Amino acid sequence: MCGGCVQEEYPDRGSTCLETGSFLMNYVSCAQCNKRDFVLIANKSTDDEDGEEIITFDHICTNCHHVIAKHEYTFSVVDDYQEYTMLCMLCGRAEDSVSILPDDPRQIAPLF
Prior knowledge:
Layout: E1 39-49, E2 52-61, E3 67-78, E4 81-88, E5 92-99
């Protein structure tokens, strides 16, 4: 992973978890070839460990194939919620939780 390729290392992305793609607003240029072009996704793998889906891949430079960052995305179901996390030097860090019920119990206002 290369801190010289990104504007900010592991920016806080709130609840925006990317399963695929790249956060190009944070990409400065390749520290190895000094070119700013598209970012490729390579070495993508999907694992399933104890009900948790883990997707990992590398962001690499289109021109010289320098590894810019390693991306990790996880998905799991815990109780009545879908849990998402993302950790990547380029795309940032984020967490999200979504209810699988029609009405999210956390969003219901008390009656009294």
